[in-house]
Design brief:
Number of helices: 6
Radius of gyration: 21 Å
Order of helices and strands: HEEEEEHHHHEEEEEEH
Mean pLDDT: 91
Oligomer: single chain
Strand content: 5-15%
Structural class: alpha+beta
Largest sheet: 4 strands, antiparallel
Number of strands: 11
Low-confidence stretches: 1-6
Distance between the termini: 60 Å
Length: about 325
């Protein structure tokens, strides 16, 4: 239909317009969009991720592969949006301060979420400045626990009316790979990492502003490096062994705070930790220098390498199911 070799320009224009209209009809809501926190002017961009199937994990032949990355399993993932950038301090500190809760809009029954923001638990103010002097404006937020990231998603949902949550491990790897089956979203050569990622060799011993390297094929920035990213899953090193081929939207739900699965590698890491399939468990040691008794359930004083990004599924779960994604208030 786009073959314009013999058609007049007017006919070509009509054909192209018809194609664009058809695409809109097929999946009219799956477009990039920008959301905004009421009363602030603070915005964040979301990128559409199409549904699909991919091989999760790494092949035995992949260099620096670890045992917890396999065996490879075919996984199906439904459509969702993912944040173009890692969550920044500009956004996360609005949740920490909670001074903007009065601007929560009034939603109706057509809204994706309908919750009272006053009922959402808030993070305590950390006893030290958690950016450790590495930067705030447009820099990734760090050191929060998975619980803090989960509750941020609940708060953000209440403020925008859109359902946000953390990605599952499967969604994260699917989005990171962006249709590729190589060690990184750009290929197998770690020599190209500096074009796409901040890591041990080029980070100058600190995280960097988000979006300053090249994006992956689906337009997501810093999926490799800068800060590692929380997922919803309990970390189980042998989880792939028990997973069936073609499973849809897998999520490993656990009853323990530790370990949870972290993905992507960080500014502190070597190239092998930045691979698309690389996994990392969270640890109690990430609170080692926290002097509080009991230790904070909101902050990891010793994890300046961990942050997160958000997703929004195309198919919105029920109100009861939404709460399951936000209720990770477990004890150590």
């Amino acid at each position: 239909i786009r073959d314009s070799s013999k058609a007049p320009k007017e006919v070509v224009d009509i054909r192209v317009k018809a194609i664009d209209q058809l695409i809109d009809q097929l999946e009219p809501t799956m477009k990039p969009y920008t959301d905004e926190i009421p009363g602030t002017g603070v915005k964040f961009e979301m990128v559409p991720i199409p549904s699909g199937e991919f091989l999760m994990g790494s092949p035995l032949s992949e260099k620096n592969r670890l045992a917890d990355e396999g065996p490879e399993r075919s996984v199906k993932v439904d459509s969702f949006w993912m944040a173009k950038y890692e969550t920044t301090w500009d956004l996360f500190n609005l949740f920490v301060s909670r001074s903007l809760d009065i601007y929560q809009p009034i939603f109706d029954e057509e809204s994706e979420v309908n919750i009272d923001i006053d009922r959402i638990s808030g993070a305590t103010t950390p006893y030290v400045e958690m950016s450790f002097g590495m930067g705030i404006d447009n820099y990734p937020a760090i050191c929060m626990t998975q619980l803090a990231a989960v509750k941020f998603c609940e708060w953000l949902s209440a403020m925008t009316g859109h359902f946000y949550r953390l990605p599952t491990e499967a969604e994260w790897e699917y989005a990171c790979r962006a249709g590729t089956d190589t060690a990184y979203s750009f290929g197998d050569d770690p020599g190209q990492l500096s074009d796409y990622a901040w890591y041990k060799e080029n980070s100058q011993d600190k995280y960097q502003k988000v979006g300053t390297k090249k994006a992956n094929p689906w337009g997501l920035y810093d999926m490799h490096g800068n800060v590692a990213e929380w997922t919803l899953d309990q970390y189980v090193p042998t989880v792939y062994r028990n997973r069936t081929q073609g499973e849809t939207n897998p999520l490993t739900v656990g009853e323990k705070v530790y370990p949870k699965a972290v993905r992507g590698g960080s500014w502190m890491d070597s190239p092998n930790r930045l691979r698309s399939a690389a996994r990392r468990p969270s640890s109690k040691k990430w609170k080692k220098r926290d002097p509080q008794i009991p230790k904070s359930k909101w902050w990891h004083t010793d994890a300046p390498f961990v942050g997160f990004r958000i997703v929004r599924p195309l198919e919105i779960p029920s109100e009861e199911e939404q709460k399951k994604y936000w209720k990770y208030e477990l004890t150590d």
